[in-house]
Structures are given as structure tokens and as C-alpha cells.
Amino acid sequence: MGKLSEFKVEWTSVLTESVKRLNPLYLLKTSPIMFIVELGAFFELPLVLYPSPYLGTWFYVGVFAILLITVWFSTLSESFSEHEAKARVDFLKRFEKEIVAHKLVGDKVVDVKSSELRIGDYVVVEQNEYIPQDGFVVEGEAFVDESMLTGESEPAFKGKGDRVISGTRVVTGKIVVEVAAEPGKSYLDKMIALISGAKRARMRSEVMLSMLLLGLSLIFLVVVASLYFVLGAFGNYPDPSLMISLLVALMPTTIGGLLPAIGISGVLRLASHNVIAKSGKAVEAAGDVDVVIFDKTGTITEGIRSAVEYIPLNNYSERDVAIAAYLSSVGDSTHEAKSIIELAEDKGYVPAKVLVEEAMVASRINYTPSKRYGGIVFAWRGGKRMFGEPEGQPLSRIEKEILAMRSLGEEVRIVKGAPDAILRLLGIDKDPRIEDIVKTIGSHGDTPLLVAFNDVLVGFVVLRDRLKKGIREKIHELKLMGIKTVMITGDNPYTAASIAKEAGIEDFYAQAKPEDKLLLVEREEKQGHVVAVMGDGTNDAPALARADVGVAMHTGTRPAKEAANMIDLNSNPARIVDIIKLGRSILTTRGALTTFSIMNDIAKYFTILPFIISTVVPQASFLNFLNLYNTVTAVLATMIFNAIIIPLLIPLAVRGAGFKVSTFKKLLVRNLIVYGITGAIIPFVAIKLIDTAVAWSIYGVVHW
After folding, report:
1. Is 441 helix (H, G, I), strand (E, B) or coil?
2. Which NCBIfam families does the UniProt record give (predicted)?
3. N or C terminus of the chain with fewer C-beta within 10 Å?
4. Domain range holding 596?
5. Which of 533, 555, 575 is the last residue of a domain?
6. Catalytic residue from among 134, 295, 446, 491
7. Are 246 and 44 in contact (CB under 8 A)?
8. Would the annotation count 536 as a binding residue?
9. Using one digit for the tens of pLDDT, what is the confidence trace for 496-527?
10. Which CA distances in Å does 679 have to 161, 224, 254, 646, 684?
């Protein structure tokens, strides 16, 4: 999957939507701070129509316009953020493809869309094709990969009468399926209904910041109202426009207007990692994550079992086991058989060429769920044969034995399979030695295959579901950030324990059902944790929907991708670390900008207040230490700065304040100090310069 290309944002729609969001009812619901600012603008309107001769019409017009522009900057950022997120989701949907079904119509096969299938239709599904609709096998046999739905890494055998589920893939074989579900009523659709019942709670940091901003706004509202009546008690009520300007200047409008921009930054920066975020809030929530829940199959592991080791028995060598397993796997197209051959080749244990040639024409013993073993029976070409030593390396013990029987024309059978099935085939009731080895292999979470040559046990092949590249290192990074890692899977406890230990995951839950995953997320959230879930299967969908951060693999099922609030187009579970790093960077940025905004408010307090108090107490004019020209220029300069600082800080909000795994707290403190000091100094300098410009433009005076 390549990098996400540029996507087009419809600016006409963005601007239209931003104007619509100036609706007071919408602002009251989504941004109480901006609602108060807009309310101030409406209170300013009568003063525009009936201005005070002391301040003049243009002063009221200017304050009214600046207040509305301040609110509009906020709604514009929000509208742009949501439209950009929508553009990304629309881009993602272009990857969705409807399954083409091979429908049987009489003696012909007709390709139709899966949505056109009806109950009673028959469809043919061949190797590496996806089952288009729920149904039952009426003909043929196949191994079907259901890991996307069940979490089990081993393909399930499907024969006549077995149920199959839409979206699962035929690994080997060919089957004819009778459709048993109408469109919209399949297993997937039922899972989607389950997803719709899972809702996300608000993030803890979002609630805390909202409470802080609301608290500050109420405090400043009380302060301004009290000041108005106190000054009135002295017989001189200040102009209402001045009090409105003071209130707006004091309220944390800067951070209120920048919150959407911070969300934009998360979506943009995630896109550079090929991760789709459906909303900026999802990215911000990643910064609060302290528990990450991984699905094992396809997320932590490759989702396919591979041979990793040979264990010899009965004085055979490792090479003997590898050669026997190799020969039994010739002509077998399953991944497990291919991995057995690849491991043998990697170790240099390749059988003699003549034996490989004989294996290619040998009779196959196909694996079935009832037998639980498979292999080959050599049918020697031409009967008895004499044999000379092949060229190359010396023959192994088992090669010599096989070739000796070949020269006599005696039957040779090599099989591999479940240990109990092989023992039963050989007529062995119990073997404590074999049981101990099976238990040891199982305790490591691996799967044992027992290999037999005629009636003799040769050894074991150990199968393991391998970790995805880089996942172990990423999980270590999560630990450095103080994040708890949990793995949940439908596999058995032994396999789960082994994979968890190998990956460095702290806790795991085995043999889990879809509802168990959802319950785990809910339990962690009730304990006060912010939870991230990684997954790719339909069984992950409810948990992905409920989690604060749900990241689905693009190679996963459609329900999983619809449930998640993020989608990794490269299907790399290690990406969760980058997502959390980005989220924490956003939290650091938001904290820094909140401090900057609050210090801004305090600084602006000293630019307007002197002119309000001096109307009653002339001696208070010494508070005008910036030597602003007059009331009109001071108020307009402050309000202009209050409005323009929002778009000026958007680049910083988008770029972020940075984050390092090992120095999160130190970096946060540093940013608070830096942005706190600059937040106090910049308003004084900027407002003085704007005051000088306003004084020159209105009165033609250059005043310093």
C-alpha cells in the first residue's frame, strides 16, 4: 500500500458550513466560550445603531465586527477539520470492493455481485477466493481461513454440510456453497448491529480541559459583572461595550479557537504514516492511552503457523526428521507444508534428488479432520530397483533406509499429523516419552506434528505462529511510556502464553469470544483507564467500537474498519506506538497553548482595565503603563489581537510542540514555562504596536 495521496477539500462547502455553525444554538451546545463571544456581538449591535458620542460609531462597528470574526475563525477551523477527516474517510472507501460471486445457473457459471445473491443460490468458491455470502457446503472440501472472524490461526476444514461465513477465504480446495442468508442479514450484519450499540465515552483530558475553560469563563464573567456594578456604585457606569470587550479579552478564546486546529494536526500527521483518522478527537485521545489491547492473530502474529524446529526420536537425527517431513510435504500447497520445506532448505537438509522426484509421483494421503494426519505412500516406478550412491553429501540414515526399501520394491509410508492420531495409526496406546514432549511443546504455545516412517516414529515438527516484524520493539516502547499491554485471542491458553511472552506483553486472555473482548474494554474503562484496541477481525469490531482509540488493519474485515476510529492502510500493528506518540505530542501542544492562552488573558486584562477604572478613578491612569493612546485605540487593539492570534497560532498547533518517549514530563514542564512566559510578553508588545497603528489610522497621530 503506497502513501496516502493528496485529497481535495471543498472550500466552498467548508466556508458554507463554517457560516452555518455561527448559529447560537450550535455554539451553545459545542463551544460555550464562543457562544458568549457571539452573545457579546449581539449585545453590541444596539450600540452600533445608537452609538455613544464619546466613543463614536466606528468604535462600536469595529468591536462588533471583530467579535464575529473571532467566532468565525473558530468555526472555520472546526469545519475545515471535519471536512478534511471526511475527505480521508471517502478516500478510504475507494478501497472497498464488493465480492464477485461465481453463481451456478444450470450448467453455467455466471459472475454476479455478492449483494445480488439470494437464499437457495449456489456459488463456486475456489482457492484464494472469498466466500461471498453465508451458506452451507453442498459439494467439495476446502480449508477455510476464518481467523478474521474467530481469531484462530489454523484454517478450518469445511466439507459437505459445514457452515461457511461471508468474508472468509478458501486457502486450499474448492467448494460449492448454497446461500443461506439474504443481503443485510448475514453474520457480518449481526456483528455490525452489535457495534452500533457500543458508544465511545468522552476522553478524560477533554473533560478536564473543558471544565478548566468553563471555570475560567465563569470566573471572568463574575469579575466583569461585579466590576460593572462596583463602578456604577460610584455613580459612573462604564460603557457596556468596554465591559463586553473586557470579558471577551479575558475569556480563553485562543485555546477555544485552536482546539480544532490541534485536531487537524493529528489527522495530517497521521496521514503521513498512512493511517486514516476518522476524527481529530480520536488522535487526541491517543495521548491519554494507558492500556493497549492487541488481537493476536494477524495483529501481533503473522496469522499463519510456520515450522520452526525439528525434534528427533529413536536415535534419528534432526536431519532425518527434516528429510522425512520434507518428503511428506512434497505436493502439499498449504502454508504449513511449504514452511516445513523452507525450514529444511534453510538448514541444508534437502533430500536426495531421486527421493524428491519419487515423492512428486507418490500417492498422497490427504489430511482430513477425522484422520488428522497426512503424508505420502511411495509407488515405486518400475518395481524393484537397484540404487547407487547419489552424488553430493553422504546420505542420512532415513535416506538409506528408504532407498534400501526402494531397491526391494517395498512400500514406504511417511506421515505427519496430530501426535495422538499418529500413535493411533501405529497402534501405540500410550507413550509417556511422547506425551512429555507434546506437553513441553504445548507449554511454549507451539503446535507439535509427529512424523512417522512406516511403523517407526522419526520425530516432531514444531509449528509456531510467528510475530510480525518489529512488534516486540514497539511493545517495549509502550512499556517505556508506562502503558500496559494486553493480548486477547481465541487461541488456546498455551499458545497465548507463549506469544505473549515472546512479544513482551504483560497480560493475555485466551479463548475469548467477541463479547469477551468488549467486556474487557469496558472493565478497563470502568477502572479509569483510557483504552486503545488493535484488531483486524469481525470478532474485534465491538471492542474497536467501544475503545477510546480503535485501530483497524486495512487488510481486516469491513465491520472492523467501520467500528474503528482509525485505519492503518499498511496493516502494521506496530503503528500504534507512533499513534500514541503523536497523541502525547498533541497533549503537550494543547497544554502549552492553554498556558499561552491563559497568560494572554491576564496580559489583556491590563490593557483594557485601566481605561475602564479611570472613568471613575482618574488616578488609576498610571495602570496604563503601555501608554496606549486612548480608550478607543486600546480596546480595538486588544480585540484585534484577540482575534488574529487564533489563525497566527494555527501553524504551531499543526506542527506540534514535540514529544520524546523518555522525557515526557520534563518536556511538558519546559513547554509550559516557555509558552507561559511568551504568552505574557507577546500580548503587551503586539497590542502596543496595534494601538500605534490604530491611532495613526483613526487620528493621524503617531503615538508611542
Report:
1. helix
2. ATPase_P-type (TIGR01494)
3. C
4. 11-92+199-286+579-699
5. 575
6. 295
7. no
8. yes
9. 787 888 889 989 988 777 678 889 999 999 99
10. 72, 22, 11, 13, 9
